[in-house]
Predict the 3D structure of the following.
Amino acid sequence: MNTQELMDIAVKAAKLDEMPADCGIIVPGENIKKVLMGVDMETAELMLAQQLGFDCVVTHHPKNTNLDMIDLLDTHVRNLEELGVPRNKGQKLLEERKQELNYNFHVANSRRSESAAKLLKMPYMSLHTPADIIGQVIVQEFLDKKFGGKPDTKVQEIVEALEEIGEYKNSARKPVIRVGAKESYAGKIYVLMSGLTGPGPKILKEYFEAGVGTLVMMHIPEKDAKELKEQNIGNVVIAGHMSSDSLGLNKIAELWAKKGVETTMMSGIVEA
């Protein structure tokens, strides 16, 4: 297998037509049989991979320099449109968050790990959105099956159900309620784990205004949670960052294994 074939398998598994902008084959490679994969893989992990005899390093969080990845936030515009929010409204509400990310990305040392991989001649890839989408689908289907047609479902029941999934059960950081209370009615449960990163409280409020009762997310900043609490119109369950990332990464590794590629997990990945 080569790096392009590995990427193609991940993209196909997420049912995407092309590689998203937050993914990249940073250093291409051939004849890959042993992969070292983690949530954050930088210079130290690249050197470790070389020392241990791996053929390729895969990081989840993006290390490429493509600023077009900010447009992946438009996922929320499409999500909200499906929930009945006009496209133009979602676009305008999202613009502030996109500008914030643009400023943050512009000052980042974006080629730090890339330069190390090139010096080490170590094949290096980033896989972000495909893994997030796969994880999102897994959790949404699980919760739909568990609570579909049960209007009396409480938020605490969602937290407890998530721990039936191996990655959440085995994680050091368990699912928690960040907005709402244990006895709050869950209402419509909507899993939101893709779209590059959190969209900010204005967009999250729109999900609630559009009929969502409980958002299940990977993570949320304290300031966003505080603002949503003040709005008092919905619930937020945080499933966990590393554990949620692990869902999709573990699934991709399973698919690679069927092609004869052995993947060793580290750097935040929780195994089921």
